[in-house]
Amino acid sequence: MADQSIAIVILLGSFIVMLLVQIPITFALAVASVATATYLGIPLMAVVQQMVQGVRSFSLLAIPFFIIAGEMMGQGGISRRLILFSNLLVGRVRGGLAQVNCLASMFFGGISGSAVADVSSIGTILIPMMKKDGYDDDFSVGITVTSACQGVIIPPSHNMIIYSLAAGGVSVGRLFLGGFIPGVMLGLGLMIVSYIFAVRRNYPKGRKYSLREAVTITKDALLGLMTAVIIMGGVISGVFTATESAAIAVVYAFFITFFVYREIPLAAIKGILYGALKTLAMVMALIAAASAFGWLMAYLRIPALATQALLSISHNKIVLLLLINLLLLLLGTIMDMAPLILITTPILYPVVVSELGMSPIHFGIMLILNLAIGLTTPPVGSALFVGCAIGKIRIEKVIKTMLPMWLVMVMVLMLITFVPAITMFVPNLLMP
Fold first, then answer.
1. Residue-wise pLDDT tens digits, 112-160
2. What are the distances in angstroms from CA 169 to CA 58, 182, 228, 233, 306?
3. Would you list the DSSP string of 98-116?
4. In which region does residue 77 sit, left (phi positive, over 0), alpha (psi from -120 to 50) or beta (all else)?
5. Which of 39, 159, 166, 395 has its CA 20 to 30 A from that of 368?
6. What is d(CA 66, CA 289) in angstroms, rounded to the nearest whole number?
7. Max Cα distance, the chain (Å)
8. pTM of the model as a whole
9. Per-residue pLDDT tens over the stretch 44-93
10. What are phi and psi of 376, to 5 degrees?
């Protein structure tokens, strides 16, 4: 008869070892699942069925639509227009381009829903522009990377859909709404840090625009921002599901990109779809492998054991939430966001929701912000690597400058963790 403890060691131990030897995480999850099922005598067909079941969700259809809409708007000129619009709003402040960086990321986050996409699209324009205007390399990259984290919190975000799946069907619409205030708070906090840097380093102000220029810039930017309005408006009103809203947003993005902005030819759609397909293949393969892994964790009662372990340390809600935040921050430094959502949600959800009485929406936003911070930290912070590559600067040089930015992000995380109303006010108001 198979021993449960040995099975847990095989499942978690083999997964960790494969990560350490840099095997892709999808393969690590799948191989660990197969090895554990073989030891337990579970038919491998059952593992395959769990993988298939993991991706057979209607809500997951929203992910490819979000990816395609983001690709279209990113390549079709929306990034440049959002930067101009942000410059119009805050560019005249000391260190205007840094403020523009934060605000543009806030806007772009409502379209792409991806921190890496934000850094890639806005960073390629703003980092060289900031360096040309006298901003230091380390600050230009640091503020671009940290402000990009708004992309995974401000709706729509495909990571929220992944969390909804992992949590057993939490309302995607309420999750989207829950990210509004935390995302804006993060952006405002980074804007304050940017202003302090700008005053201390004497960074320049932006130029003034004429009324005619302002009208043109606003009109162009609002056309792109309507993509996010369509998605959120449809979900909040109940007219569309998140998936249906995402599909309609793709049609709108297609029209704006190819028939209004017209910066890229219609033939570019092939490359856009190919890029989206590559991203989608990675995401769906990861979800399939993580579904089998999560099923085996539930079979072995790992979530229940984790709950007992945490409660054996303390029953104090504040202590437990601090421990969970610390755990997520540490995990975020060594693993990417999507797999961590799929792995940690089944383990921590029973603790925070059943034992501590936290709302699933509140926990989801806390979890995603924790892991968003991990996107900016070494050794595997994907947003950090992309930003440093664009800025042609070593990671070690950027890290020191990013310390105050990380401090702001952690402060916002603590406020979100211990003041539930910050997250829950908008969902309770608009989708009670």
1. 667 777 787 788 888 888 888 889 999 999 999 999 888 888 887 888 8
2. 11, 22, 22, 21, 22
3. HHHHHHHHHHHHHHH--HH
4. left
5. 395
6. 22
7. 79
8. 0.86
9. 899 999 998 888 877 777 788 878 887 787 777 777 888 888 888 888 88
10. -105, 0
> Could you tell me if 70 and 252 are in contact, meaning their C-beta atoms sit under 8 angstroms apart?
no
Please, which residues have CB within 8 angstroms of residue 297's CB and are 6 or more apart in sequence? 11, 303, 346, 347
Token digits for 309?
A: 């372990």
Cβ-contact 146, 192 below 8 angstroms = no
* Residue 365 identity: I
Q: Are 421 and 365 in contact (CB under 8 A)?
A: no
N-term to C-term CA, the chain: 50
Per-residue b/e over 54-64, b at no fewer than 16 CB within 10 Å? Answer: beebeebebbb
Q: Which of 136, 190, 125 lies closest to 390 in space, CA to CA?
A: 125
- Alpha-helical segments (H) within 41-95: 44-55, 62-75, 78-90
- The DSSP code sequence of 345-412 is HHHHHIIIIIIS---HHHHHHHHHHHHHHHTTSTTT-HHHHHHHHHHT--HHHHHHHHHHHHHHHHHH
Q: How far apart are CA 82 and CA 153, in angstroms?
A: 18
Find, among 254, 228, 232, 222, the residue nearest to 86 by Cα: 222
Whole-angstrom distance, CA of residue 166 vs CA of residue 287: 9
Q: Which two tokens stand for residue 290?
A: 């993580």
Burial label for 392, CB within 10 Å (0-12, 13-18, 19+), is exposed
Report the C-alpha gap between 141 and 144 in whole angstroms. Answer: 5
